[in-house]
Structure formats: structure tokens, C-alpha cells
Amino acid sequence: MTSEQSTPSAPEAPETASPRRAGIRYALGRAVATPLARMVYRPHIEGRENVPRSGAVIFASNHLSFIDSMAIPVAAPRPVHFLAKSSYFEGTGLSGAASRVFFTSVGAIPVQRGGGQAALDALDLQRQLLEEGLAVALYPEGTRSTDGRLYKGRTGVAFLALQTGAPVVPVGLIGTDRVMPVGAKMPSVKERVTVRFGAALDLSAHGPASSGRARRQATDEIMAAIHALSGQELAGVYNEPPAAGPIEKIKQVLPHERR
């Protein structure tokens, strides 16, 4: 695959978002939610000893269900942050307040979703979290797999790892798509989830973050580790959203680096 060799432009920090440390609300939410979720869903957790207990770390996982971002923090032996749509924090009334409390308590940080500047802002926010020595969870596929296959990884995770020096812990999630399939409003308690943490990856040998080749090779190493943990069928292509028009269709087939 041809990848661009130019250095990604350094995104400016978003004006309205800032990294937030695990405060009292998160600590209380984690203390309540983690044992409750483990009691209800009885997850199989493997490889917790592979997770560094301190310092920056990136959890790079396959993505099958909405609850993946809850499964990883519940299973991990340390606090984990992930980015969530800002709309989850903007509701009004009792339901809006409940949504804000829930997502904050599980380590979610609001961001504007989308491409262009929004994507660069999200990348920069994740870098700030890592520079604070925190743990973040990311999905190299970019979006959920609706057919259960493992899609090609985008290079944003590798870029962050190479730029910050943070190790990458690959994660294989199994069964989250059965617990809460796409379109389901509530998770099922009849199914069990398996969360597998692989050995931490030091990707620095691939080269600097400014190298497109290094980003691509590091991404392929991450995806190979995820595949070994999840056992999914490989799709061999990117998980692209439906093209909105003819220009987007052309852009999807042209050689370019997916971030």
C-alpha cells in the first residue's frame, strides 16, 4: 500500500477541551462500576500482568460494540481514558445530567467527532493525555466492525506512540458484539466478554513519527498483535464509512494514509 511520507502537521490544542485527571468523580465511579460490571457480566480477563501500572500507555483494541469503551476500563488494572462524542455531555434535564455523570465516571473525555480539524484536535488531546502520564484507549480500525472481521489499522495510534514514546498494549475483545450488538439499546446479561491484554509493544525501532513508512509498519505490528489476541477473520481493507458523494468515493480509492 502506498502511504504518504510527509510529516503530519502539528495540531493546535483545542480551545474548549483539556486533559482531565482521574478526579473524585472518576474514582468513585470506577470504584462502583468496576465491581458491579464484573459481577453482572463475569468477564474473562487475561494478561493483566502485561499492563504497565504507571506512566503513559496506549491500549489499542479491536472494536465490535459500543460497550468496548466500558469493557477496557473495567478490565484494566489502572484508570483508562477514552474520547467520547461531545453530545453525550450536552444533554439537558435529568437524563442529560445522568449521561454526563456516567461518561465522566468511566473516564470519557468529550470531543467533537469528525474529520479535518476535529480529527486533529482529538489527536492532540490524546497526545496531551499521554504527556501527563495517563492511559488512553484507542481503536486503530477507526470505527466499529459490523461484520465481526478485523479491518486494517489507521496510522493515528502508531503516530501517537512514535511521537510520545508511549508503549502500546494490544487488546483483543471477544463477545462484546453479542452482549450489545449494533442497534441494541441495552446490553444483554446472558453473554460473557473476554478481554485479553497482550504484551506491551515498543514501536520505536520502526523510526520517527515523521516517517510514513514507520507509521505504517508500526500500525501493521499493532494490528498483528490484536489479531493474535482476538482471532478474528481479517478483512484486508479499511472500514470506510459510506462515501457521501462522488468526490469522497474518489478520495477513498486514491492512495493515501488513513489516520
TrEMBL record:
<feature type="region of interest" description="Disordered">
    <location>
        <begin position="1"/>
        <end position="20"/>
    </location>
</feature>
<dbReference type="GO" id="GO:0016746">
    <property type="term" value="F:acyltransferase activity"/>
</dbReference>
<keyword id="KW-0012">Acyltransferase</keyword>
<dbReference type="InterPro" id="IPR002123">
    <property type="entry name" value="Plipid/glycerol_acylTrfase"/>
</dbReference>
<keyword id="KW-0808">Transferase</keyword>
<feature type="domain" description="Phospholipid/glycerol acyltransferase">
    <location>
        <begin position="57"/>
        <end position="176"/>
    </location>
</feature>
<protein>
    <submittedName>
        <fullName>Lysophospholipid acyltransferase family protein</fullName>
    </submittedName>
</protein>
<feature type="compositionally biased region" description="Low complexity">
    <location>
        <begin position="7"/>
        <end position="20"/>
    </location>
</feature>
<dbReference type="Pfam" id="PF01553">
    <property type="entry name" value="Acyltransferase"/>
</dbReference>
